[in-house]
Amino acid sequence: MKTILHKAHTRGHANHGWLNSYHTFSFAGYYDEERTRFGLLRVLNDDTVAAGMGFDKHPHDNMEIVSIPLAGDLHHNDSTGRSKIIKQGDVQIMSAGSGITHSEMNANKDKEVQFLQIWIFPEKRNITPRYEQKTFSVEERKNTLQTVVAPDNANALWINQQAWFTLGNFDKDVTTTYQLHNKENGVYVFVINGDVSINDVELNKRDGLGITETDSLHIKANSQTEILLIEVPLRLNK
Length: 238
Hints:
By secondary structure, the chain is mainly β. The radius of gyration is 17 Å and the shape is globular.
């Protein structure tokens, strides 16, 4: 097993007033040649957007973009005519494909919105842009793992890549195991809240851990814990 540890305080940080953003990987004005991606995971941004503010319309192409709200409500508009609100408990995926323009705004005038924005390189390029969102029961991930994004699971959002997103909320001292779908993949663990040990590596709130060369993860919650697992191929298909 090989690991790469990214402690929360080592992330890139940009505070624009209306946007307070932490970057696990190189993004915008933050660049670290050692942290450009983990396999096909390109971006993991931890964003807080001020009341009534947000990202104006901007383009994307050939990227799978997943948004996971942690608090508040996020208003999504895109060039296909969609206008959707996503909130805590929801997960959204947008396949930018051959090209799409979208905006993301805080839907509320009186409180912040916090969300994770995650980019994955696609399996097939230049597909027709697509959008999907789903509300997941938070209770169904209590002391267990819940798959929310997958290429092969009818209960999850479909992604144009051999990648799996899994969420779990655990009470202190609960243990479980995550079995990789493909032992050639890697898993990036992101601690949303709490303290957890992954294969005996201790992690705290907003820490990240990339793991390769293993077929399973042993998870032990050291406090009330919320985690995100992102399993991805380590290299692009040629």
